[in-house]
Amino acid sequence: MARWDEILSLPVQNPPKLEFSSSDLVWSKVEGWRNNMDRVALIPFARVDDFVKGEAVNEDCPTRFHVEARRRRPQEGPFKVKIDGILEYILYWCSFGPDDHRKGGIIRPSRTTFSPKKTPAGRPNTKRGCTCHFIVKRLIAEPSVALIIYNHDKHIDKKGSPCHGPQDQMAVGTRAMFAPYISEDLRLRVHSLLYVGVPVETIMQRHNESVEKQGGPYNRDDLLTHRYVRRQERSIRRFNYEFDEDDAASLSMWIDAHQNFVFFYEEFSENQPVTIGIQTEWQLQQMIRFGNRSLLAADSRFGMNKLKYPVHTLLVFDSNNKAIPVAWIISPRLVGADSYRWMRALYNRIQAKDPAWKLAGFIIDDPLVDVLAIRSATSFSRDVFQCSVLVSLWRIRHAWHKNLVKRCSNRETQIQICKRLGQAVSEVCKGHGAIDLFHDLMDDFVDSADFLEYFKAIWYPRIGCWTTALRTLPLAGQETSAAIEFYHNQLKTRLLNENDSSVYHRVDWLVDKLAKRVHSYFWLDEYPGKEDFSRYSKNEWISGLTCWRKALEISDTDVILEGQCARVLDERESDKVYTVLNPGSEFAICDCSFSQVGNLCEHILKAMMICHTKGSADKSISLHQYKEAFLKILNCPPHDCLIRDHAVSLAVFMQMELNCNNRFDKDDMLDDEVERQSRFALSPSPDGGASEDQSKHYN
Fold this sequence. Notes:
Elements: H1 2-8, E1 28-31, E2 37-44, H2 48-56, E3 65-72, E4 86-94, H3 123-126, E5 133-139, E6 145-152, H4 184-195, H5 200-213, H6 226-238, H7 247-257, E7 262-266, E8 275-278, H8 281-291, E9 295-302, E10 311-317, E11 323-330, H9 339-353, E12 361-364, E13 388-391, H10 394-407, H11 411-429, H12 436-444, H13 449-459, H14 463-472, H15 478-495, H16 507-525, H17 547-553, E14 559-562, E15 565-569, E16 577-581, E17 589-590, H18 593-596, H19 602-614, H20 621-634, H21 641-661, H22 668-682, H23 692-698
Parallel strand pairs: 9-12, 12-13
Antiparallel strand pairs: 1-2, 2-6, 3-4, 4-5, 5-6, 7-8, 8-11, 9-10, 10-11, 14-15, 15-16, 16-17
């Protein structure tokens, strides 16, 4: 028992890396079997795979570990709980062992049935008698912890000589110098290219060209074979998502076969609808990379009219502020208290990888989302991400714009309704208006019967929820909304492109296409070598800049303000001019084809930027809320001098970051106001305490 007391007293180590190796752990020596000293460490059981992958990426001796032996027992059973009881035992062995198929090598008695082939091509390179192995034990006393016993960490044979890798002289010039299999990155690249329709021959041609360019093979990935790619293409082509005629049974079978794609699954019951959460390993990595101390956005209710169940997407923003999907949740009910369970499962999965991961803000596009499950609320125990919540207007702006152009043919009436909608939203966000503003709008435009009928039927029942959300939550900026809308259009093009529309009513088709084909398109968006395969591009390959980034590339001289409209010249076709009505507002109307279907185009955004710069339009709502929040902070300075100095340093750092990323001219009025307020708020009185005016403010 003393041995196990010593083991269980060891700290559980969780390195803040996606993958880690034995060099990242602190190992302890405890008494083991036959009075030998075991080299042990404790890690979270959920991170065993990360340790196995990290240990295989060894520069001195690249390899891969396989499961040589495994034993399991049920976590709940009639047995008595023992401190040394084992729930699961896994023996991982280097893939170059334990047998030795080299000439004169030793093969274990259990493998005597092996009969040499006539052409043993590659056989000496796969099994070379490597003794490197480690044991993973999952204890009954601590099921969430894995005990690693790593006594044989050298890649040597029984004679003590290197048996593979660069240190093995006999392996020079053979594949035994490299890892036995290609890396996960190359496998994902090959699969993605195959899913989007790139031929096998083209993949191999581009790969061979890159190897020749670098002067020959340097790792296992450089030895990619045509046979491997052809086999992957054949398996993809022959795979059928429809395991069973019954959709529910087929979905359950698909999930059993693709457990590494699913982070949450609840079957349909009388009380709960079916809910599936999909997240690949690459999406998890992107969420940890771009979501830490940053924003997470939601695109909800996708496919409400076509799909059997709508798709809810979680998005992060890369260095170019472009949206990347990091999780898809499929359920008939995506709002309300039901979202707490999959949010908690997703958060726990991230924390298992990186305990220091923390979200800065969550952007919603539906006021019915369970906000309490997202942000921290000390009076509730259901908070998950513990961050602030923002709301985006892109969904209602898109719907209102699209239906206004479609249902109202009078251009002058369109402009007036857009103005009133923009003013109503602005007043509500600033806290000066309520639902009565929308009542007055419907009373004033009774002549637009078609649009008002749509507005009353679809949006009037939701106006109360939206006004409450807009008054209580800060508003996300136009660049964020443009990125979410751009992703929404990408997903529509890449998912809803089937010739047979009957598949839209099957959930097994939906999860399979999202996790494989659609995922491949978004992975290729981040792949720097995508242009090498541009000849095979289709509509689904649509990528590039968001409309906000396109607006930044339009020259200011190409925008001409003429009263209640703005004219924007096309950069590629100088004779083409786009007219923007109601410029300076997010609820403007442009005559370009992209805007006519409800999208926020670059011409509207550029006209808005010019109007804000020249002062012919009010500042955006999000900037107004930023000013208000910043000035409120300045009006409540801390009493403690040390905290105040720390706050000043943070404010200076924030100002430097904003100046580096600032794309517009400074607002002199805001600078003067902030400077005046900061002098008042941060200047102590001569006696070192708060000034008299500050004391009055506190009282």
